[in-house]
Amino acid sequence: MDGAGGRGERGRRGAPPAASRGRGAARGAARSSVRGRGAGGSPDGAGTLRAPRRDASTARRGRPARRASAVRDPAAGGGEAPAAPRGRAPAGRAPAAQRRAEVPDGAVAAPAAIRRAPSAAGALRLREVLSRLTLGRQDVSEASGLVNQVVSQLIQGIRSKDGSFDSIERLGAGSYYEHVKISEPNEFDIMLVMPVTRLQLDECDDTGAYYYLTPKRNPKEKHLFKFLDEDGKLSALKMLQALRQIIKQEVKNITNVEVTVKRKKPGSPAITLQIKNPSAEISVDIILTLEVQQSWPPSTQDGLKIEPWLGRKVRQEFRNKSLYLVAKQNKKEKVPRGNTWRLSFSHIEKAMMNNHGSSKTCCESDGPKCCRKGCLKLLKYLLEQLKMKHPKQLETFCSYHVKTAFFHSCVMWPNDTDWHLGDLDHCFQKYLGYFLDCLQKSQLPHFFIPQYNLLSVEDKASSAFLSRQIKHQLNNRFPIFHEIP
Ligand SMILES: [Zn+2]
């Protein structure tokens, strides 16, 4: 359901209901211990946020300002905005809205609310929420430093082995955090990429996203032959089992940090590392990814309709980039055999995030500023908060839904002037309105694979539930952003 391959899984794993209460404290513990290490996550330039100055100054009121330069942008590549520390929610400020009688769920249609002119106070509140999210990122970057160190050591170890994985790399080495989920500073997804010369792709269902893979019978690919199943298809299960064995050996060589490989869950081949600090545990999902230099499959032909927004040339450049496939069990398969792979576009998503303007200078230091990323972060945060409140009812939703709706919105409102920084409130409601529309229709096409509906008809009830929850928030000026559990 998501780009990187692991996040959806994580979403389903979800937070246990009890965690929604205990989390604040746990996060605090994680934060202090991680910070104590002073690991400073050496951010690469690409993802560093140029935070609007206005945000930085309002932010200072909430918590002590930290080094802005090390602050990373969670929206840059599919990460999630970290939740703000609950205990410090601005209870005193705000909510004229909360004093008003709350509108019952779904009683007022969303479009009416959207047309309502946003008051200055409302806009200020959203901006405040956003700056709280911005502050939380420091914790993430510090945890990232530790993860970075462990994963680098691990990759060195894997590559030094004479084996099938000696060409493995971290996706986008150096800017890898942009591919991690960071709603919790202690949960990460890391894509480990294996280059493959050529693969035959066979669709395994009608989504156009899941494939069986057959490597070419070519001596260059002989390191893959041992991972073929009886039908000659590349088995993700076999590859992950082999990789798991190597990683289990390799973590023993890491002595400065306590790293263990989590026990395999029945039916899931995922590899999860557990990095122990005195008071915090960081969990890292390893996502096995194949990279192949060949044209994108036909299911993508009518996707990525970014012409009005980023232009025809950029679209073609993107489509000339490698194809990535992540080991991912297709849940629709009656007898799961661990041999299905799913297309991943997180490298393109990251590129679109980092270069998101219809003009080249959007959000550059000398260019006009927009609120696109701000809107995305707010909706991610909203979904996250709602999921904490209703983990069971919302378990099928993950940040990839929000991100997909975001890209569609960018195409629908393609100009930088449509996302003027000062119009945050209005833009957010516009984007939210589109997302609500998708939920009501149970129709959200994958941005790259239009035939693939991310809101399946089977999930209609949960779409309706989420839609009601969001409308309630919208009609009451987002009380959940200001709640202290
Ligand atoms: Zn911009």
UniProtKB/TrEMBL annotation:
Q: Which PANTHER family match?
A: CELL FATE DETERMINING PROTEIN MAB21-RELATED (PTHR10656), CYCLIC GMP-AMP SYNTHASE (PTHR10656:SF35)
One GO biological-process annotation of the entry reads: DNA damage response
Please give the InterPro entries that the UniProt record associates with this protein: Mab-21-like_nuc_Trfase (IPR046903), Mab-21_HhH/H2TH-like (IPR046906), MAB21L/cGLR (IPR024810)
GO MF terms listed in the record are: 2',3'-cyclic GMP-AMP synthase activity; chromatin binding; double-stranded DNA binding
Database matches in SMART domains: Mab-21
Span of domain Mab-21-like nucleotidyltransferase: 176-355
The record's annotation in Gene3D superfamilies points to:
1.10.1410.40, 3.30.460.90
GO cellular component labels: cytosol; nucleus; site of double-strand break
What family is this protein classified in? Belongs to the mab-21 family.
The segment(s) forming the Mab-21-like HhH/H2TH-like domain are: 371-471
> Can you tell me which residues the record assigns to a coiled coil?
none
Show the segment(s) annotated as Disordered. 1-104
What name goes with this protein?
Cyclic GMP-AMP synthase
Q: Where is the composition biased (Low complexity)?
A: 14-36, 67-104
